[in-house]
TrEMBL record:
One of its GO terms (molecular function) is nucleic acid binding. Belongs to the SF3A2 family. Residues 1-24 are annotated as: Disordered. Residues 54-84 form the Matrin-type domain. One of its GO terms (biological process) is spliceosomal complex assembly. This is Matrin-type domain-containing protein. The keyword Cell division does not apply. Transmembrane segments: none annotated. The keyword Nucleus applies. InterPro entries: Matrin/U1-C_Znf_C2H2, Matrin/U1-like-C_Znf_C2H2, SF3A2, SF3A2_dom, Znf_C2H2_type. SMART domains: CactinC_cactus, ZnF_U1. It comes from the Eukaryota.
Length: 237
């Protein structure tokens, strides 16, 4: 911290630090301390959201940069929540060992699942003959998947993934997950998906072990004027 050139101080001497300067110096010291002890890649509570900010999943706080997050991890709130979480995990672990949770109130402990490979897939491009909307039909094969287990679909923005760096905002990702198979990620254009029932649907054929997913994108006009007051909604909404 610079103690010179402050109001009320003599030449070569240190003046009284302001509250803002003291807080800035404290945050910088905490950030340097955290850098020596914390690896953000291994922090389970560190999360980068779709707008580029950083979140603490434990304390539910948002930070504009990694330095602010690191300083937060050394603060009282984060340390207190860490202690509470550790005590709760220890208590749950002890109860599970004693068999306290049984029957209808049992807590299912997630076990490490051995992945058996990627499913086979096929993609077809489509175009609605009436609205001229572009779409994609995905066909994935899960021959060893249990019939009662249906694959799940999730859309992810470019800022959520950690494979491509820097992220490209012009693309999004569609994830299809079904354990014990590896999760498949399909890179799509960052266009808004039409969520109407006949435009977006999924279907799991438990007999043939084939999963279908159909995605239709909105037209450029619908994307441009979506949510504009006074604009008539599209048919089927």
């Amino acid at each position: 911290m610079d103690y010179q050139n402050r109001a009320g101080s003599k030449f070569g001497g240190g003046g009284v630090a302001s509250k803002e300067a003291t807080n800035a110096d404290r945050r910088e010291r905490l950030r340097k301390l955290a850098l020596e002890t914390i690896d953000l890649d291994k922090d389970p509570y560190f999360f980068k959201n779709h707008v580029g900010s950083f979140e603490c999943r434990l304390c539910l706080t948002v930070h504009q940069n990694d330095g602010s997050y690191l300083a937060h991890t050394q603060g009282r709130k984060h340390q207190t929540n860490l202690a509470r979480r550790a005590a709760k995990d220890a208590q749950l672990g002890k109860r599970n060992e004693e068999g306290a949770f049984t029957g209808a109130n049992a807590i299912a402990v997630r076990k490490n699942v051995v992945k058996i490979g990627r499913p086979g897939y096929k993609i077809n491009k489509t175009r609605d003959p009436v609205t001229r909307q572009l779409g994609l039909t995905f066909q994935l094969q899960y021959p060893d998947l249990a019939p009662e287990t249906a694959p799940k679909v999730r859309f992810m923005s470019a800022y959520e993934q950690k494979v491509e760096d820097p992220p490209d905002k012009n693309f999004q990702y569609m994830l299809v997950a079904a354990e014990p198979y590896e999760t498949c990620a399909f890179k799509l254009q960052a266009r808004e998906v039409d969520r109407r029932e006949d435009k977006y649907w999924t279907w799991w054929d438990s007999d043939s072990k084939v999963f279908w997913a159909h995605v239709t994108f909105k037209t450029e006009r619908e994307e441009r004027y979506s949510g504009v007051p006074g604009l008539a909604p599209s048919k089927g909404r």
